[in-house]
């Protein structure tokens, strides 16, 4: 993983996304330790089903801050790949995105939108996207559901690569630099 250094991306959009993911620390058949993630979700009463575990095994721990059009790495990144659990300094819990009340009893509009669309069990895994990232949920089938604060529609993707391509549809992404 090459961090804090801008790399040039070549090829079609899919190849550039794959290269960016590789630069972020992803590789085919990647498997990382996720016991801390399982503990985090279990402590909140959320069961990680097999597709969620598989997702975290493959994508947890890759670089979370991507600088695509933003050149100065001292500024905020323009793309994020942040999976739960968030750092303690964020003071944000997975349930804060799932519920609209402090008692965690009233499901958020995003949760309800995914529930209507999914027709399967699902959980929230993090936020991925450009400037205003999507909340990303994974279903038992492995499909990814994306919701945005500015859009009532729930988008469905078969892979994180499709999701990233959608999030970057208005951006060429000819180079990228990353930080954890």
Total count of domains? 1
Mean pLDDT figure: 95
Structural class: alpha+beta
Bin the strand percentage: 15-25%
Protein name: SUKH-3 domain-containing protein
What does this structure look like?
The mean pLDDT is 95. The protein has helices spanning 13-23, 35-43, 50-59, 94-98, 109-118, 160-167; strands at residues 7-8, 65-67, 79-83, 122-130, 134-139, 144-148, 151-157, 175-179. The protein has one domain (7-179). The longest helix is centred in the N-terminal third of the chain and has 11 residues, at 13-23. The protein has 180 residues and is α+β, with helices and mostly antiparallel strands. The protein has an 8-stranded antiparallel β-sheet with strand order 1-8-2-3-4-5-6-7, with helices on both faces. It is built from 6 helices and 8 strands, in the order E-H-H-H-E-E-H-H-E-E-E-E-H-E. It comes from Clostridium mobile.
Could you give a quick summary of the protein structure above?
It contains six helices and eight strands; from the N terminus they run βαααββααββββαβ. The protein has 180 residues and is of the alpha+beta class. Helix 1 crosses helix 6.
Ordered list of secondary-structure elements with their pairings:
Blueprint: E1 7-8, H1 13-23, H2 35-43, H3 50-59, E2 65-67, E3 79-83, H4 94-98, H5 109-118, E4 122-130, E5 134-139, E6 144-148, E7 151-157, H6 160-167, E8 175-179
Antiparallel strand pairs: 1-8, 2-3, 2-8, 3-4, 4-5, 5-6, 6-7
Helix pairs in contact: 1-6
Any descriptors?
single chain; 180 residues; alpha+beta; 8-stranded antiparallel β-sheet
């Amino acid at each position: 993983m090459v961090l804090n250094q801008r790399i040039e991306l070549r090829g079609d959009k899919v190849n550039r996304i794959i290269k960016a993911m590789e630069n972020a620390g992803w590789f085919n058949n990647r498997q990382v330790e996720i016991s801390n993630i399982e503990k985090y979700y279990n402590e909140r009463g959320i069961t990680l089903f097999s597709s969620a575990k598989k997702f975290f095994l493959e994508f947890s721990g890759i670089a979370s801050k991507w600088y695509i059009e933003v050149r100065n790495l001292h500024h905020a990144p323009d793309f994020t790949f942040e999976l739960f659990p968030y750092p303690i300094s964020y003071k944000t819990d997975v349930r804060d995105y799932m519920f609209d009340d402090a008692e965690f009893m009233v499901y958020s509009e995003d949760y309800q939108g995914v529930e209507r669309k999914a027709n399967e069990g699902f959980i929230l895994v993090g936020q991925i996207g450009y400037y205003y990232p999507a909340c990303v949920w994974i279903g038992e089938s492995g499909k990814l559901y994306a919701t945005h604060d500015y859009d009532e529609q729930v988008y469905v993707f078969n892979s994180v690569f499709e999701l990233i391509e959608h999030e970057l549809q208005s951006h060429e992404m000819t180079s990228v630099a990353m930080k954890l």
